[in-house]
Amino acid sequence: MKEIGKLFPRCPICKSKKGYEPSTFYPNVRCKSCEAEWIVHENGLELKRTSKLQWDSELLDKKYPLDFWKNLRAPQFQVKEQIFAPVDYVGGHSSYRNPAIGYILLKPDSITYKSSEGSLHKMNLKIAIEKLKALEISATKEITFALGPKSILVNSNKEYLVLSYKNHGNKLQHMIFDFHGQKKNVDELRILVSHLKKEKRKKK
Ligand SMILES: [Zn+2]
């Protein structure tokens, strides 16, 4: 107990300074804040019970060296609500012919495209995460190919975000967005979405 307090003044998982207490499951020690439990080994810690934060479940029953725990960071996957902007709708969806300016709102179970107040055409389209089939960055050429010659794209040599999902009739819909070259932004969105999809599959 003293040992873990000395080694980790802050809990490796929740970073609280509240300290540790003995668990009812000897010889585990428990973080007073997040309630994660470990066994302290000479050269490492073994997580015996996951914290209330739950993202540490993949570490359960594994022994890792002290350095691992010292460098542990909470993953950036704790999505509650996150806005990605600017993301302007260019076209592609059979029910939305007009372009719109707006943003993408990501929630743990859905992705919503919303037009902003100044947008001439209004959109508010929510897609359940499990209906989402693809979220990819594509060059104009590839999109024109996928959508045929009626493609609405004007600006050549540009990259777009293409969102594909299954609608109520189980038909595949595509939506094309201009993300104004903010690729890092879009990459983050894609990583989060793929993580959320994985989580969904796990729960089933
Ligand atoms: Zn803790």
Description:
By secondary structure, this protein is an alpha+beta fold. The protein has 2 domains: 2-70; 82-203, PH-domain like, CATH 2.30.29.30. The chain has helices at residues 2-7, 66-70, 140-147, 183-203, and strands at 20-22, 29-31, 37-41, 44-49, 63-65, 82-84, 88-91, 102-107, 110-115, 124-128, 132-139, 159-166, 172-178. A 5-stranded antiparallel β-sheet has the order 1-2-3-4-5. Strand 1 and strand 2 (29-31) form a beta hairpin. The longest helix has 21 residues, at 183-203. The radius of gyration is 23 Å and the shape is elongated. The relative contact order is 0.11. Residues 11, 13-14, 16, 31, 33-34, 36, 51 line the site of zinc ion.
User: What is the helical fraction, as a range of percent?
Assistant: 10-25%
The H-level CATH homologous superfamily of the largest domain, spelled out, is: Pleckstrin-homology domain (PH domain)/Phosphotyrosine-binding domain (PTB)
State mean pLDDT (0 to 100 scale).
Answer: 88
The tally of structural domains comes to: 2
Query: By helix and strand content, what is the structural category?
Result: alpha+beta
Write down how many β-strands occur, each being a DSSP E stretch of 2 or more residues.
13
CATH topology title of the largest domain:
PH-domain like
Largest sheet: 5 strands, antiparallel
What is the radius of gyration computed over CA atoms, rounded to a whole number of angstroms?
A: 23 Å
Instruction: Give the amount of beta strand, in percent.
Output: 25-35%
